[in-house]
Amino acid sequence: MTPHKDFCLASGPPAPPPTLLAPSALADALQLCHPHAAGIDIGAAEHWAAVPPGGDPQPVRRFGTCTADLDALADWPLACGVTTVAMASTGGAWLPLVALLEARGVQGLLIAPRQATPVPGRPPTDRLDGTWRQRLHTSGLRAGACRPADQGCVLRRSVRHRQRLRTSAAPPRQHRHKAWPQMHRTRTQVGSDLTGVTGLAILNAILAGARDPQHLAQRRTPHGHHTEDDMAKALQGPWRAEHRCA
Description:
Radius of gyration: 33 Å
Strand content: 5-15%
Low-confidence stretches: 3-10
Helix content: 40-55%
CATH architecture of the largest domain: 2-Layer Sandwich
Strand order of the largest sheet: 3-2-1-4-5
Number of domains: 2
Number of strands: 5
């Protein structure tokens, strides 16, 4: 039986095997996007920095994490003609280093942690990680994270710090609201939130030793929804030590 023409093997000599490029030829074939690029592997106890091979007789160096070591680390790439540095944005150890580099006019490129994972078949050492980031950044194979300008970083840090303070202040405020009815006090007659102007004024007076409900009610704001007599009536009750502590 003659095979169908669609399944016949092509006649002729076999195709030659693909040509494998040597590592040096492969490196030469890659386009140099950042010829003056360096790479830094940031660690908790030490940093490994790598500059282009022709920039220094010792292109890979180890630096400490103290302020003097970071100053030396920021000065060394600048002396080697480096204009941009790639590093992983893991933890917070990169913050002071990026600030020092940018103060010297060197661009700090923050690589996402998922792009800084070790490559299979390559030993995951700190020394090689810095060199590997330098090679990849030279060829433009690593994308940097979005980082605003200096004033934008100040605003973002302040907003995040304020949000953390608000989040951490929520549990103590809830304990305070829970302890208030345990003292036979009606919180709705004093204020919807004990952290408001009237609530804080009354709580500060109680902590200072005031116990007279009429005296405490006089600390209400003039724009309150409840009268002074209603508030004084709501502030009557026992003064147990554990509730005052809460």
